[in-house]
Amino acid sequence: MKQVTRHDKAESEVTLPGTAFYRMRAEQTEREYEIRVWVPEGAPPASGYPVIYLLDANAVFGTMVEAMRAQSLRPEKTGVVPAVIVGVGYTAREPFPPDRHYDFMMSVPEEELPRRTDRATWPEHGGAEAFTQFIEEQLKPDIERRYAIDRSRQSVVGHSLGGLFVLQLLLDHPGTFRNYVAGSPSLHWNLAWIARQQETFVSRMTDKHSEIHVFLAAGELEGSHPSGVIERSRAFTQWLNRTDSRVVRADFICFEDEGHVSVLPVFIGRALRFVSSD
C-alpha cells in the first residue's frame, strides 16, 4: 500500500512492506471499497494462512500490519502466528468516513437512535445486511482466489460501530467466522434488534459443529460514557457463556487507563493474540 507524504515541497513514497490494495464495487449497492491486504513472507502452511478481515481499514490497517509484522516473527514468544490481513476501507482519506454508518448498522427506527448533542441528523444507515452479503459473496471468494487461505481459521475484527457490526454478524450469521472480535462495540445503537436475536441465537447454532470464539474489549475510561459500553459488553459476554450452545466461548477485557480511541493499539495487539490461539 502506498501513501504519499510531503516534506519541504518534495514528494516521497512511504510503503508498508508486504501490502497491496485494490478497489471493489459491491454488486448489490454499487458502493466502492478499498481493499488493503498484507501477506506474510514465505510459503504458506499446507492448509493455507489464517485470515483476518479488519473493518475501518482507513484508521487501523497500518496499526495491525505493523503489530503483526513484529510479533509474528517469534510466535513462540508472542503468541501471534502469521496471518493474511484483509482491511476493508473506503476511498475517502479520513480515518472514520460516514459511509461506515450505513455499512455497519442495521436499519433502526429514528426514535431508537441515540440523540446527538449537536441535534444534527445521523448519517444514512441500514446497510449491514448488504455489507454482509458483499463480504460473504464477493470479498471472501476474491481473497481465496488470490491467496492461500485456511477457511477454517477466519476472523473478523471491528471497533465501535465496527464492533457492533461484528456482534450483529455473530447473532445473525453464526459460523461465518471462527473468531469474532469487537472492541468498544456500540451495542446501544441497536438494543431492540439485539434482544430479539438473542432469543433465537441458540436455534441458529444447532447445526454448527465448529467452535466459535468471541472477544469483546473496552477502555476503562469509557466507563463514564452514557452508552454503557463496558457494562453492556461485559453482560453480552456473560450471556454468550451462559447459552446452551457448547461451541461458543467468549472473553471480555477492560483495558486500564484507555479511552474509546486510545484503546485501539492495545486492542489490536490483544486481538492478534486472541485469533492466533484457536
Largest beta-sheet details: 8 strands, mixed
Order of helices and strands: EEEEEHHEHHEHEHEHEH
Number of strands: 10
How helical, in percent, are the residues?
A: 25-40%
Q: Mean pLDDT, rounded to whole units? A: 90
**What fraction of residues sit in β-strands?**
25-35%
Account of the protein in words:
It is a single chain. The chain has 278 residues and is an alpha/beta fold. The chain has helices spanning 57-71, 75-78, 99-104, 128-146, 161-172, 191-204, 229-242, 264-276; strands at residues 2-7, 10-15, 19-25, 32-38, 49-54, 84-89, 149-159, 179-183, 212-219, 248-255. The strands form two sheets. It has an eight-stranded mixed sheet, sandwiched between helices. β3 (19-25) and β4 form a beta hairpin. The protein is globular and about 50 Å long. The relative contact order is 0.14.
What's the gist of this structure?
The chain has 278 residues and is of the alpha/beta class. The chain has helices at residues 57-71, 75-78, 99-104, 128-146, 161-172, 191-204, 229-242, 264-276, and strands at residues 2-7, 10-15, 19-25, 32-38, 49-54, 84-89, 149-159, 179-183, 212-219, 248-255.
List keywords for this structure.
278 residues, alpha/beta, 8 helices, 35% helix, globular
Secondary structure layout plus pairing:
Elements: E1 2-7, E2 10-15, E3 19-25, E4 32-38, E5 49-54, H1 57-71, H2 75-78, E6 84-89, H3 99-104, H4 128-146, E7 149-159, H5 161-172, E8 179-183, H6 191-204, E9 212-219, H7 229-242, E10 248-255, H8 264-276
Parallel strand pairs: 5-6, 5-7, 7-8, 8-9, 9-10
Antiparallel strand pairs: 1-2, 3-4, 4-6
Helix pairs in contact: 1-8
